[in-house]
Each structure stands twice: as structure tokens, then as C-alpha cells.
Amino acid sequence: MELTDLNDLRKAIDGMMPEIMLAAIAVIVLIFSFLKSLNRTTFFVTLAGIALYMMMIGLASPFKIVVSSAAIVTIIISGREQKIEFHLLIIFVLLGAALLITSTNYIMILLSMEMISISSYVLTAGTTPDKQRAEAAWKFFIYGSTATAVMIFGMTYMYGETGTLELEVISEVYSVSLEVF
Q1: Rounded to an integer, what distance in angstroms lies between the CA atom of residue 111 and that of residue 99?
Q2: Torsion angle of alpha carbons 156, 157, 163, 167, nearest 10°?
Q3: Cβ contacts of residue 177 below 8 Å, gap of 6+?
Q4: Which of 51, 101, 134, 169 has a CA 20 to 30 Å removed from the CA of 17?
Q5: What b/e readout covers 134-171, taking b as 16+ CB neighbours within 10 angstroms?
Q6: How many CA atoms lie within 13 A of 96 on its CB side?
Q7: CA 68 – CA 74 distance, rounded (Å)
Q8: From CA 89, how far away is CA 164, in angstroms rounded?
């Protein structure tokens, strides 16, 4: 490897440090899930972890701020008595959304959306044995699986047309701007 390649890798890791920290918070909450008596502690660890994530991203990405704020509001409204798995799934949804916002490749978009979707399916089903929630989760799963299949089908057409999965190259081929602001 050349020195420029290592510098590029270091810059990429530095750019992903908030998401890496969020994944570390998810691992900590996962460890807490094995210790059943730490529901309230997990509540505060999750809130502190998301707040730390928001401080790390600063004002660099307004979309990440909005998604993180929504995660904090969801956790606060749900209350301290939620099970540890709920907090872990909210972190996974936030991590998937953060990765989706920074995605520049179709594969990363697909993986990010699947991280969000699978966590959402489990959140929909909940932890209580309720027939209506189970039915809703099943229908959500069928709908999501169909949408994923259609999205992958469209991605294969784009790959066949352009020969790449990078959004920047595809936007150049079709002369479409990727700038949001």
C-alpha cells in the first residue's frame, strides 16, 4: 500500500468515527442485555450515547441531527421501563439511517435500508404476544421484502446501464446533480 492509500483510509475512518462510536454504544447496550437488571441504566446509556453522537457530528449534517433527535424523542416518550432490546433496536435504526445518509454506493444504500427495515420489523412486532402486532409485523415484512426485491431489480438495471454502483459516476452518466443544498 502506498502512503496516500493509508492516508485515505485514515481520513475515511476519521469521517466514520461518529458511526463507529454509535456501533460501540450498541455493543455496550447488547452487553447490558445479558445483565437483566439494568433496564434503567440502559435508558440513560442510550440517551447519553446518542447525545454524544450528536455532539460528534456537530452541525455537519442536518439530516443526522434530525434523525438523532427523533431517536432521542422516541426513547424519552417510550419511558424508562422499556426493555433493553427496544433501546438496542432504536440504536440500530439510527445507525442504519446515519449510514444511509452518508452512502455513496448502491450496496451501502441497500445494507443501510435493510438495517433500518429489519429493526423496524422487530420494533413493530414488539415483545408482548399480541396478535394484532404480530399481524402488522408480518404484513410489514412482506411489504418490505417486496420493496427490497424491486429496489434490487432496479439497481441491477442501473448497474447494467452504467457498469458501476457508485452514485457519483451514475449521476455523471445521466448528468444529474447529487447536491441537496
Answers
A1: 9
A2: -80
A3: 171
A4: 169
A5: eeebeebbeebeeeeeeeeeeeeebeeeeeebebeebe
A6: 18
A7: 10
A8: 32
C-alpha to C-alpha distance for 108 and 7, rounded to whole angstroms: 22
- Residue of 116, 112, 111, 89 lying closest to 100 (CA atoms): 112
More confident residue, 35 or 87: 87
**Grid coordinates of 61:** 449534517
User: What is the amino acid identity at position 128?
Assistant: T
pTM of the model: 0.84
Comparing C-alpha atoms, which of 42, 68, 40, 45 is closest to residue 55? 68
The pLDDT tens digits for 18-46 are 889 999 999 988 888 787 667 778 888 88
Three-state SS at 166: strand
